[in-house]
Amino acid sequence: MELKDQAAITSGSAFWATTAAGDVPAITLTDGPHGVRLQVADADDILAGQPATCFPPAVASGSTWDPELLKRMGEALADECRAMGVHVLLGPGINLKRTPLGGRNFEYFSEDPLVAGVLATAWVQGLQSGGVGASLKHFAVNSQETDRMRVSADVDERTLRELYLRAFQRVVTAAQPWTVMCAYNRVNGVYASQNHFLLTEVLRDEWGFEGLVVSDWGAVVDRVEAVRAGLDLTMPGPDDAGDQALIDAVTTGRLDATTLATSADRVAKLVAKSLVATKTTYDADAHHALAREIAARGIVLLKNDDDILPLRAGQRIAVIGESARTPRYQGGGSSQITPTRLDDALTALQSLATVTFTADPAEAEQIARDAEVAIVFAATAHETEGSDRESLDLPAAELALIARVAAANPRTVVVLSNGAVVRTTPWDTQVAAVLEGWLLGQAGGSAIADVLFGKVNPSGRLAETIPLKLADHPSYLDFPGEAGHVRYGEGIHVGYRGFDAREQEVAYPFGFGLSYTTFSYGQVRATVTDSGLELSLEVTNTGSRDGREVVQAYVSVPESRVRRSPRELKAFANVEIKAGETVTVPLQIDRADLAYWEIRLNRWVVEPGPYEIAVGSSSRHLHTTTTVQVEGDQARIPLAATSTIGEWLSDPRGAELLGELFASMAAEGAGGMAGAIATDPAMMQMAIGFPLDRMTMFVPDSLFSPEALAKLVDAANN
Ligand code: BGC
């Protein structure tokens, strides 16, 4: 390909199309992630999409904890893409929900990288099995909207690896998405779009990513730097000035010609792959039904006093709140889908029971009083890409409505519609039941009725903690940052990890969700294998309804040499269990998932020692535990002259050598402080934090001279 074609093909020709160059045609990329938003031809509004199935956004599909469902959603999305001529769908979004105020939390799966990674892997596999490419986004650390185009997410390397990159790593290695989309923000000072560490060293060299890196729309600041860092395709286009800058950079030798040629080649390969799939049609009814199934499975039953739910046919029900009639079913911004149809809960409920409805707060008390059960539909205000939320609270009018209805009828059920968790305290104590209805996509209204009436037994689980109040949240003091930087001060203690580390009460813990049936757990058994841990336990449905349980395995490393969160989710299984039945649930934990990122060795390390495994139905409802001994990796941290006496002594070889040295000092009757350290345990305690090379000031030259130290270090490490 000629240089000018290489430059042209590495930027778009239009908002949603790549550039045709030479014999390589153009392809279409479009949003994503929970539906296909193909812009209506000639519409000025880039958000005006042709009708497509609006599946539940990730906040709801993530709460299913069911990769099988996500895979089916991916397959259905591929059908729609092919019907609409879309080659790459811009999703899934897998950034961690670092703060409950994140404006795009509704587009992301979880505060936990395992949940996000497992679900996104299934989604990508489903989509790509239909011949349509995914775009894993936003790489990386795009966990807030405030100043999103510039802010530097300042994250220490261990946190970056263990939390913010972990889900990306899982999806890239397990599913090879055709594309990865870089984020707008900077990561530790460097724009993600020109971050060589992220785009080349980590993504390609370490993880073996084989696809193409596309920019988020408008994320490229300097095209030459971006290509040099590993970015292949700049969107949107055209970008004539950027094309020319690339040509100039190659011509003058500022940019290696093979770097640009490689990126151009990746675009050509993506195009070739994209053009294999044939156009098709899709079954809109079947997709609507799938959207309903996923939505119902994503609903989380938070509270159900006296088994007020499920409702029974023929009951007199008061339905209160505008969101019953006008559903809040998706968030704002680039993921906004024009649905093929839209179910509202009111209509769905009217077909099942005798319903009186108002939205009028003045009437609400009266109709609630006259009904057997009152259902309040309460929604957050608009949540959108581009802005973070200002508060964790429901709008004041919704809170007032809940209070009035609850006072009129104690048999009140609240159904929430929200893109990220809201504060449930203290109003949840005044009502009998709470259904977390998230944003559920176009079939959400029917799905809510399915769960309220028990057609679907709820099995959704919280993929994010509901705190008692905002100030409790681990991210609270370091969000949204200032002066262009946001410090990820809570480090590895993101979400439930932080609440657990500080032993804080929460309103509803990570992993939590009730069912209309009950489950009991047998004793977990664990075996250590070369590839990790194999767990197995029996779970019994002890109630009278068929149901699903999400069995969750958390691991602790009590003797870790680094700071760890008290519990980390390492495996989960979504199992269907008939009433009265017992099933054996196997769970696998990959050895790689037991590792922590050792910054001194710049790699993952599995530590030796006891690993405690706790299995339960949420991060705080742990029913059975066991402990296994794991053999560690070879991961000795080399000693240096700058290592402290304490570090020397905690290393077996170092302790031996230093012991010999101190023994000889004591034997020679060395005086002063050095002698005291060698003979007096109290002095040793005081000197434990001294780097060895600082000892020169206190001991005879011959013992701690640079030459003697170099020999000692050599003897310790070789
Ligand atoms: C969003 C991406 C989206 C792109 C194209 C950006 O503003 O951050 O998620 O895919 O626009 O609409």
From TrEMBL:
Report which superkingdom the organism of origin falls in: Bacteria
Q: Does the keyword Aminoacyl-tRNA synthetase apply?
A: no
Molecular function per GO: hydrolase activity
Q: Which residues form the Fibronectin type III-like domain?
A: 549-619
Q: Which Gene3D superfamilies match?
A: Glycoside hydrolase family 3 C-terminal domain, Glycoside hydrolase, family 3, N-terminal domain, Immunoglobulins
Spell out the InterPro entries in the cross-references.
Cellulose_deg_GH3, Fn3-like, GH, Glyco_hydro_3_AS, Glyco_hydro_3_C, Glyco_hydro_3_C_sf, Glyco_hydro_3_N, Glyco_hydro_3_N_sf
In its UniProt entry, what is this protein called?
Glycosyl hydrolase
Q: Name one Pfam family in it.
A: Glyco_hydro_3_C
Going by the UniProt record, its keywords in alphabetical order are:
Carbohydrate metabolism, Glycosidase, Hydrolase
Q: Which family is this sequence assigned to?
A: Belongs to the glycosyl hydrolase 3 family.
PROSITE patterns, per the entry? GLYCOSYL_HYDROL_F3 (PS00775)
